[in-house]
Specification:
Layout (H helix, E strand, L loop, with lengths): L6 E6 L6 H17 L2 E6 L2 H7 L9 E4 L2 E5 L12 E5 L6 H9 L5 E5 L7 H5 L3 E5 L2 E6 L16 H9 L2 H10 L9 E5 L7 H10 L4 E6 L4 H8 L9 E4 L2 E6 L4 H10 L2 E5 L2 H9 L3 E4 L8 H12 L5 H15 L5 H8 L2 H16 L4 H12 L1
Parallel strand pairs: 1-2, 1-5, 2-4, 5-6, 6-8, 9-10, 9-13, 10-12, 13-14
Antiparallel strand pairs: 3-4, 7-8, 11-12
Helix pairs in contact: 1-15, 7-13, 9-10, 12-13
The structure holds 2'-deoxy-thymidine-beta-L-rhamnose.
2'-deoxy-thymidine-beta-L-rhamnose binds next to helix 1, helix 9 and helix 10.
């Protein structure tokens, strides 16, 4: 007898930036590739999607990409049957007609809110708890996280092995970097910079330029470019631009596909990342990093930052932990980080070891896609 695959619907509204689509696209692909599920991904803004996946046809109402049925989520909702599992990413509001379709099913679907990532302790207590109800259908909180008792982090099967192999293969790295137009000088420290606007940047670039060793800064197109241009004293910076100031080479990169961005992070000695998804990918890169956390009202992001730092630095000596804390807190507050950077450099081998150790520790958790599937299996 033909066994029908469970059907999953993932809903994504693109609030701003790329994190919402970045996370849901990753999850949808993984559910198809590793769990053989039938997945529809509903996205309200296909142009943002196209930036991280150039194959996307931003005019298509329906298309298949890597086994995922990608649907444009139109303002005027057309009647659609509800799936077995429904994921509302980041508390997005589902169309009322769709919720009615969920309630009309003989067996209501498993309806989950895939929440924002946080290292705060309360997440463990709230993961898996009931949220609101629509008619007979109960919504459940599903929290990603770093600690046992949360939903874990997105991590594709074999990712860490791939990463390790790539990092042990300098010719493969060179070839990859050359494909992006990057010629790394033998002694140069490679740094990637993906961040929101940040007034603290200039002080960092000052010390990188004054460094005894060469630094090569790779900046994907995006919101920080204005600050970089101001420091360089140029009007604009476009993709491909290379500017040299003393020991510092600044190079502007195109926005690349998600898997290429991973490889870029794996090549770099240090990664500055932002938001939610690039933050996790930098952790999987196993290299020292700096997080520009997404700013939230009433500074609630600062609790998230403190909670993550407490976990991430617990294996460090007090002095190295203090150096990391100083660097990260200053960066997220838009304060000068030059001195903090120099201080962190004093503990480099320890920070490198910690980054790898943290990655290995997190890699022991079940990944988020597997945790979602297990949650569903326990529920049916
Ligand atoms: O773009 P972001 O700032 O997204 C943010 C956060 O997710 C935040 O939590 C959310 O609330 C807010 O949006 C609305 O940062 P993030 O999460 O790192 O997403 C960037 C995505 O873009 C990620 O999937 C990696 C991807 N990317 C590429 O695919 N290619 C690139 O060249 C670069 C630089 C990023």
């Amino acid at each position: 007898m033909l066994e029908l695959k469970p059907r999953w619907d993932i809903f994504c509204t693109v609030v701003d930036n790329y994190g919402d689509i970045g996370v849901t696209w990753r999850l949808a692909r993984q559910l198809v590739a590793e769990h053989s599920l039938a997945v529809r991904l509903w996205v309200d803004d296909l142009r943002a999607f196209e930036r991280i996946c150039p194959e996307i046809d931003s005019n298509a109402a329906r298309q298949w990409q890597q086994g995922v049925e990608v649907r444009h989520w139109p303002r005027e909702w057309a009647p659609t049957g509800a799936a077995d599992v429904v994921i509302a990413a980041f508390a997005c509001q589902l169309p009322t007609d769709y919720m009615d379709a969920m309630a009309e099913r003989a067996k209501p679907p498993l309806w989950m809110n895939l929440d924002y990532l946080s290292a705060e302790d309360w997440v463990v207590g709230c993961h898996g708890l009931p949220s609101v109800k629509y008619k007979s259908v109960q919504k459940i909180f599903f929290f990603p996280g770093f600690q046992a008792g949360t939903g874990g982090l997105l991590r594709e099967r074999g990712l860490l092995e791939q990463r390790r192999q790539f990092q042990q293969d300098p010719p493969a790295q060179r070839q990859f970097l050359q494909g992006l137009g990057i010629e790394r000088a033998p002694e140069a420290q490679l740094i990637s910079l993906f961040a929101y606007e940040n007034a603290g940047l200039a002080s960092w670039l000052d010390v990188l330029a004054a460094d005894a060793k060469p630094n090569h800064l790779l900046v994907p197109e995006g919101r920080i470019l204005g600050d970089v241009a101001r420091w360089l004293g140029v009007e604009t910076l476009s993709v491909g631009a290379i500017e040299v100031r003393q020991s510092l080479t600044v190079q502007v990169l195109p926005f690349v596909r998600q898997d290429q961005y991973d490889r870029l992070l794996w090549c770099c000695d240090f990664n500055a990342v932002r938001g939610e998804d690039s933050f996790v990918r930098a952790q999987w890169a196993g290299r020292p990093m700096l997080w520009h956390i997404y700013q939230q009202d009433e500074d609630i992001h600062l609790d998230k930052l403190d909670a993550f730092l407490a976990l991430y630095t617990k294996g460090l000596s007090p002095a190295a932990a203090e150096a990391m804390n100083g660097l990260w807190q200053a960066w997220s507050a838009g304060l000068p980080i030059g001195e903090h950077w120099l201080n962190a450099r004093n503990y480099w081998p320890e920070l490198q070891e910690n980054a790898e150790g943290w990655c290995l520790e997190q890699g022991l958790q079940a990944d988020l896609a597997a945790a979602l599937v297990q949650f569903y299996l326990n529920w049916i």
